[in-house]
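User: Predict the complex.
Assistant: Input components as received:
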Amino acid sequence: MDEETLESPLQGTETVEEDAGQNAEKNSCKGDTVEEDIGQMSEKKSSEIDETNEAAPESSDGVNAIGSPSSGPMKEKATEEKEEAKSSGGEPPVDWFEPLEDDDDDAESNDRNDPEEESLAGESERSESVGGSESTFKKIYQLHAPRRKRSHPDEGWVECPALGEGWKRKEVVRRSGSSIGQKDVYYLSPRGDRVRSRVELISVLEGQDLSNFEYKTGKFYHGETPLPRIRSRKRKVRERSSSESSWMERGEGADTPDSHHRLTPSLGSKNVNSNHSNAPLNSTVGSPNQGSHSEDPPAEDKIKLPGPSSSQPRPLPSINGEIGSEDSILICARCGISFTGTWYDKQRKRPCCPSCWAASKTKEHPMIRFRKWIPCGQCVGCHNTDNCGQCANCKHGLQSPESRRRICRKRKCICPIRKGPGSGGFMQQRPYSDVSETFDDSMSFQGEVTDSQHPSLKSSDTENFSVNVDVDDEDELSTDDDDDWHKKRKRRSCGECKACLCRKDCGTCDFCIDKPKFGGSNKKRQKCRLRQCQRQAMRHLLPFQMGQGDYGPDGPLPPGRPRPHYTYSRKLGLKKTKGSQMGYDLSDNEDDDSNLQPISWSSSPVRSSKSFFDTNVRNHQSSMQQLNNSEFGVQNGLSDSVPQISNHSNPHQEQQNRWDAERAQSAREATKQVVEEDEEELPMITQIFSLADNSVGTGTDAENHLMKLLDSLRSSVLPILWYAIMVEGPQLQLIQCSKQSSMTDTMVLIDPGFFYQVTVQKQPLLPTHPLYDCYPARLTSVTEVVNLLLGLEKYSVCQGMPPKEPLHYKDPIILERSSTCDFLVKKNVGICNNCRALH
DNA sequence: GCCAACGTTGGC
DNA sequence: GCCAACGTTGGC
């Protein structure tokens, strides 16, 4: 119990210390000292743990944490200690002061660092820890220190004897996000199982009665009355206004990210009508079981919060229950001014000065953001003084004046300055601030609506003004931290594609298998691959063979976002340069849509057989084995005699097409959508095509004709798992998506003249193939296409002949095909006559 | 550069 | 309270 009461106040300190420690230590190499320290740590073990922990609150040497039973954390810890010793003992190595690549790093990585920066904001101690200037510290920090505690996995663990020997417990205060300040309690079993919840604990402690165990505090209550759980009266944050929610929900409004005082969320929260001076709040800090619970006044009595509507912005009660006795100097996340007190913004994420808070408190609609707007005062919009009463803003304002108080569109400043030259967006050169000092309907404020509201505004906005006010682009200008926050967290999903909309896990992909509900160990902790956003998911998270592969620097990019690089090193600059050369931003500023631009396939280079083969082996494995073998065989002397399609899309592209189709198919299967809806799966492909500069030299008409056929095909029911897409050429490509199908490597390519060609494993059927005799030379209608596909389904791919002489058992078996192989043979045949003739 | 792992946060 | 899963790190 004592340990715990000590622990909580330590939290904040701990963070600072370890951050500083990290900073100092990161520059030290690991190497042999590590092993040595591992040994030392191993000797510590539990006997030292308690001692260490007791000293922890006072300790500033950063060695107050406990070694984890696992070797990994131990190793890290050992390194830390060693390095810590170095840093505390002397001056940092010279190269500490070598500059980062530049200050751009800050800017470049703003997005990346935001949450962390924020979470560290106010931890002024950190600069002291280094003894250098803050800026120096910051650079060092950025350069060397990971901001996460990954390198301190064993930090903060304290013995939890209640659960048995070897059990450890750790409280983690959320350092960012809308739930900042919230405490999560983790347990670590002697075996190293990390327990995140009571449920997990029960599963780990199978058979043990935990009914009297209070997870939060790590105590069993024997005969005592367990701490009554205060029923959450929490409502959605968004339903609250401004910092009221911060206080009411958390009861720790005075608790700041940098505060050393943490409140147990279940205590002291939801305290509204109380006298804050009744009891020191720190009586509840991390020690709900401290003293008699019955003596604790009702939670409601612990804090008295001034009503958020108070017109007098003044510091709110501090954490220890004395008004103003502990003035936290905070930096307003909105306007940047420092202020005293503990005001938080609406979403409880960031400090918010009273002014900004007051301004934002009327912001009731969660989807509407308000931004201070500085009108030009000269344009026609600015000269309009009367509301038109007709526009959507006026009408909506009449209906719900509180929720949508936006300026009449006729009164909007439409000054061209807003629109940067050729920018398509407005206000690129205009100063603005999202600081809302006051709120009214004056022209000084520009309402902003969410994306979903844009279309109506857009059409309306443009109707009477010569300057097209593109409301969509307002988002680009948003500096709303809340938005950034959410964007960052949400940027992996568009929320619109079918994968995003799909709620059902496939249960078979590796990510699903990893999930506890599927019996996995929860190590990967990723969303089902089939549910990864088709547009914005990281490539490596997409279904297999999607988003992977060895794409050349100028090659087409696979769907999905490039993997970000989070290396806090000077390599970043190089990477960025490379990234920009590749046409996408490798910085972490992924909110930038540059990564999401549709990619033209027209520039795709022909990939080497080698890399293609490798990639296929890696990505497609068994499913593509046949293809690979075929290629391999081709490389072994058969291809020369097989005519190539000169204008055929390159193998890479075909593969991409196939992947697209597979992805669509996967999503389709996962969502169990009916076939008729499948057309929606691949609009992206069409879009890609249409955005490519394919019409040059091919004739737009021809392309249009093909597109019409494509549309027709997509609105029709094709034979099962056949899919039509448009590819470079243009060519209409029909693919069999199912790997189970005998036609999985067969494609039908229709050119702008509607002449078609069938290819198998990228090899064209010889014109003499009997298949061609059964169907018209041109496929001008859906019916003709469907007939051909149905006809194809009666065929299978010629398997080729095994080599005459048995190869060494280690060698791959390469089936041989005749240069005149039919490729497609009737299903009951297996091997074509030409191949049979080889033997 | 890739990826397994996992700390952490959002949301139900 | 719990789980899903996002973002990041460190190892390879």
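Chain A is about 30% helix and 10% strand.
Let me know if you want any component modeled separately.
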